[in-house]
Amino acid sequence: MNDEITKRKLLDAISHGSIFFSATFVSIGVPIAIFFISNDEIVQNNAKEALNFHLNAWVYGIIFGILTVVIIGWPLLAILGIVTLVMPILAIIKVLSDPNQVYRYPFIFRVL
């Protein structure tokens, strides 16, 4: 039972923290891989939530990048940078403190 909890904590933390590995496809590839290799429902739901957050960050980054033409994009990109740094850290802290709970990111669109 204890090994199962440790494995769950590790996989959940890797899913949420994968955004720090790379800003490319690695950040979404890790939660996808964890989703398919794990048969634990909580790990799969955390991987799905992390994937949704990463996709939202990409979409917002593209939109805000386009908006830099009208200057408002620069502060929005700065805010997005802070959010993509802080929110996964909060998610990792939450899943490590309560491994039986799925972390839900606020204010994102859930594609999956």
Offer a quick outline of the entry.
This protein is mainly alpha-helical and 112 residues long.
Describe the structure.
The protein is mostly helical. It has 4 helices and no strands. It has helices at residues 2-17, 26-37, 41-67, 73-97. The two termini are 29 Å apart. The relative contact order is 0.17. The mean pLDDT is 92.
Please give the radius of gyration in angstroms: 15 Å
Order of helices and strands: HHHH
N- and C-termini, Cα separation: 29 Å
Number of helices: 4
> Mean pLDDT, rounded to whole units?
92
> What is the helix content?
over 70%
Beta fraction = under 5%
Largest sheet: none
- Would you report the number of β strands? 0
Question: What is the general shape?
Answer: elongated
Give the quaternary arrangement of the chains: single chain
Taking pLDDT < 50 over at least 5 consecutive residues as the criterion, the unreliable ranges are none
* SS content category: mainly alpha
Characteristics:
112 residues, mainly alpha, 4 helices, 71% helix, 0% strand, elongated
Topology:
Blueprint: H1 2-17, H2 26-37, H3 41-67, H4 73-97
Helix pairs in contact: 1-2, 1-3, 1-4, 2-3, 3-4
